[in-house]
Amino acid sequence: MNTHHLRVHPSADNLPREEQLAWKLAELATDPVEVTEAVTDMVVNRVIDNAAVATASLVRTPPAAARAQALAHPYSPGATVFGTPLTTRVSPEWAAWANGVAVRELDYHDTFLAADYSHPADNIPPILAVAQHLAERRGLTGKELVRGIVTGYEIQVDLVRAISLHKHKIDHVAHLGPSAAAGIGTLLGLDAETIFHAIGQALHTTTATRQSRKGEISTWKAYAPAFAGKVAVEAVDRAMRGQTSPTPIYEGEDGVVAWLLDGPDAAYDVVLPGPGEPRTAILDTYTKEHSAEYQAQALIDLARRIGTQYPFLRDPDNVTSIVLHTSHHTHYVIGSGANDPQKYDPTASRETLDHSIPYIVAVALQDGAWHHVRSYAPERAGRPDTVELWRKVTTAEDPEWTRRYHSSDPAEKAFGGRLEITMADGGRIVEEIAVADAHPLGARPFAREQYVAKFRTLAEGVLDEAEVERFLDVAQRLPELSAAELGELTVTAPDGYLDAVTVPEGIF
């Protein structure tokens, strides 16, 4: 591994391109290192996972609106759009947009948490869209697509390990723009110069505040990573046409680090694979068994287990208080430490509720289960006994859970907490969990069988059985797919299914 020391440089330094982080990332993207079997297998899993959650969101309004926008931009050869026929093709940046929203809408695909947050599978829609569009023209196959996705994962994870964006209230998609641009560069076999400028442009245009994840969370939460993917496609296109980027984008005295992150005196150590070293970052990421913020995954498992073991706790009259002792992030972002009254509002949006650990704990405790639709239904959120129990749930930061959250030791890193329940009779129940059941170190780690089962579950009532089997066959042959077969990496809904949702007319 190589460590790149990132700091701010005045313009007078005339920092050589080869010493800039964007160049180091571009070099990583051009390294022809072979992809390992384990990494390839996990790429297949995540392609299946993305399709699963996109399928379940097809008739929700944000994906429907994004799909309508994409369909207004037909193109040949173009790329596919989730839900539509295989022959329906749109311009690749718009396919990246529509498919990115569908993947992100339910907050249900993979995650990686370190110095910052991320959903690395957000890289897949833009890279796949470009692969489908240029497959025949450039002779791209499943092998090239896998390599591009591996680069996207590697760069996003490496940036997330080293550089905190949320500390400065910058949305985490600022790491996604560069990673997706680099992944497309690997896919297409572009040179380092072109990828360097694409990375710079993608970063420059994807920095935004975290207000999209604060207070009353809007539908834009699903659009933010899709926008980064769309911007990445456009950035690569411009770079291929010889257009340059703000340089140095990270290190400049008016650049990202100096003015958006830790300031002129900042310093970061970004650890990247050296030449010829396998790109294995995807193996450190993890998917979700439940449709909710990742920090809620383990706590859903704990709450549903406690509720099943002690069913009397489902009655709010038997409970005085429930306090979750957890990490800084869980407390301040999705817990009561956020000081967002919306996190206790029964009429709050789904996007707000899936970022409310008090709500999630109350419902999982009462139901002994979690469902991507039923658990967020307005009638579920508004149930009087749930509201009463929900408002007895608070969170508190615990230094030890914060330390474990940030630990670099995979065996110690934790995303859970300790629930302390005080009952009306004065008794107490105290239980804790470190990682979700589906985590690689959890009680029931996800493997191919679980990814396929998740796809089948979320496709139930949406896709015809023949379409389910067709997609699973194609996805599991990903590394061997021909150029013509790349266009089959999508799902088609039955005739009339997408008509269940309509969106107002826009500009396009």
From TrEMBL:
It catalyses: (2S,3S)-2-methylcitrate = 2-methyl-cis-aconitate + H2O. InterPro entries: MmgE/PrpD_sf, MmgE/PrpD_sf_1, MmgE/PrpD_sf_2, MmgE_PrpD, MmgE_PrpD_C, MmgE_PrpD_N. Its EC number is 4.2.1.79. The keyword Lyase applies. Keywords: Lyase. Residues 290-478 form the MmgE/PrpD C-terminal domain. This is 2-methylcitrate dehydratase. GO terms for molecular function: 2-methylcitrate dehydratase activity. Monomer. Belongs to the PrpD family. It is an enzyme of class 4 (lyase). Residues 19-267 form the MmgE/PrpD N-terminal domain. PANTHER family: 2-METHYLCITRATE DEHYDRATASE, 2-METHYLCITRATE DEHYDRATASE-RELATED. It comes from Georgenia soli. Coiled coil: none annotated. It comes from the Bacteria.
